[in-house]
Amino acid sequence: MIALVGYMVTVLLLSQRYLAPLLLFLGLVAVLTSSDSGPLTATYASVAGAMLPCSVWLTVTLIGLEDRAHRSIVVISAGSHLRVLLATVATAATGCLLLTAAGLVLPLMLGAHTPGLADLALGIAAQLTCACTGMAIGLVCSRLIFRRPGHALVLALVLLLAVLLGKGVSPVNIMLTRLQSASDSADVLAPTGALLAVTAGVLAAAVAVTQAVTRRKA
Amino acid sequence: MLRCDAVGKRYGAGRWVLRDVSMEVPAGDVLAVAGGNGSGKSTLLRILVGLSRPTTGSVSGRPSRIGYVPDRFTVHDRVTAISYLTHMGRIRGLSASAARARGHHLLERLSLVGGRDAPLRTLSKGNAQKVALAQALLVPPDLLVLDEPWSGLDVSAHGVLAESIDEVAVQGGSVVFTDHREAITETRARGVCTIDDGRVSLRGGRHTGSRPSTAELVLTAPPTDVTPIEVNWSALPGVTGVVQCGEEVVLRVSRERSDAVLLTALRHRWSVVSLTATADGRRSRGDARGTTR
Question: For residue B248, what pLDDT band results from cuts at 50, 70 and 90?
Fold first, then answer.
């Protein structure tokens, strides 16, 4: 598994296709949080919102890097479709973790905040919740399921809007509205952690769906 | 032993690419799959290695160590050839240094031109094909599946490819490859499958003598005024069938006895019209057809 992730990271880095989602994320974070001195809960809510489209983009890009022949070779070498798919998710997660680190530190440098431990934990949990949702959307809208990038793009945008605006249904929407109105990170840390667990489940479901569709189509 | 049972394949609701394919690939065997463009060769190979699931039927006895060379090794990667092979070796469970050493060895043997440290995308078709072949051989496979491996390779690499195939077979691995040129499938494989209209039929290739096979011998009176001496053909050892077609006598002889029967015929002043090796009752080639008329 480590070898698979190492290979995918190498391919992603050399392709330089990670740059666009990375720059989008850094740009969004800079615009949304610069010279901001309000409570960190709202700041990290904005950062988490920025994480959502970037994690989708990163996942779709990563899966789109390899064509069918290459993927066949990797699948045969690794021994199973599922192992390669899990390694893809692990690689995307690695990228999202790096973005999370940037999203954690940048608002503190750009604005005037005095972060506590609970604030940082909340920042991580909130971003990872969005990253899990984003990776799930990215998987479902990837080349593994859609041959035509146009259809995949439309579906990705629809799903993104749905999870952002789905009041009371979408974990992302619930979390973001709660964080916007909260003032103390320690109060909202536990419910955010619960939502993170829910979105991790969503990601697992997306992996299962992708695996099932890939096997059926193969 | 790799075995297909009544395998059928269609994509979605499309036409049947393969229908009712049953075949076996014993360990140490080299099997060629012949057929025209779009006849389903690649689909059959993808099913054999487990990339595709058959719509009907099943594949059993698939070993865990498989080497697979796809029909198109399109390379957009900036990864260098040796780095690619090292990664693939590590994915297969080799240590980084062992994978690198093995990769260097294979690329040396295949004489990759264009540099091991050149990005894959800069390699020509033939050289990319060599990298694709090398990754399949990183770990000695129990099943080596090659989709049109000869296309794009230069002559020296042809030799190395044939050697590699033989090595895998000698070590007890099975080899299946495709090609649309009969000359290659017949010389390089021990058995040849032909796909036609989704159905697969098996016939002999190289070493057909090791299989129960017969020769078809067609004899006639010489064009000169010599009258051949009548022989009781069916009494000769190895003769399994005698048919009289006008002037010609068609004999079916077991391959082991065909030389003796031929000698008898020539001694009795018969002229040979043709001698054809057949396997499983089907004609496979006409080596000596008409040469002695």
Answer: confident
- CA nearest A64 in B: which residue? B76
Q: Which of A3, A75, A216 is nearest residue B51 as measured by Cβ atoms? A: A75
Q: Domain tally for chain A? A: 1
Q: What is the pLDDT of residue B209?
A: 38
Domain architecture of chain B: domains with CATH: 2-204 (3.40.50.300), 210-285 (3.30.70)
Kindly give, in sequence order, each residue whose CB lies less than 8 Å from that of residue B286, ignoring residues fewer than 6 positions away: B274, B276
Q: What are the C-alpha distances in Å from B22 to residues A105, A196, B5, B16, B198?
A: 62, 50, 5, 15, 12
Q: What is the DSSP letter of B41?
A: H
With cut-offs at 50, 70 and 90, classify the pLDDT of residue A6.
Answer: very high
**Dist. CA B179–CA A218, nearest whole Å:** 23
Q: Residue A105 is part of which domain span?
A: 2-217
Say if the Cβ atoms of B88 and A73 lie within 8 Å. Answer: yes
Express each pLDDT in A104-133 by its tens digit. Answer: 998 888 878 888 888 889 999 999 999 999
What tens digit of pLDDT does each residue of B71-119 get? Answer: 888 766 788 889 999 999 999 999 999 999 999 999 888 888 777 788 8
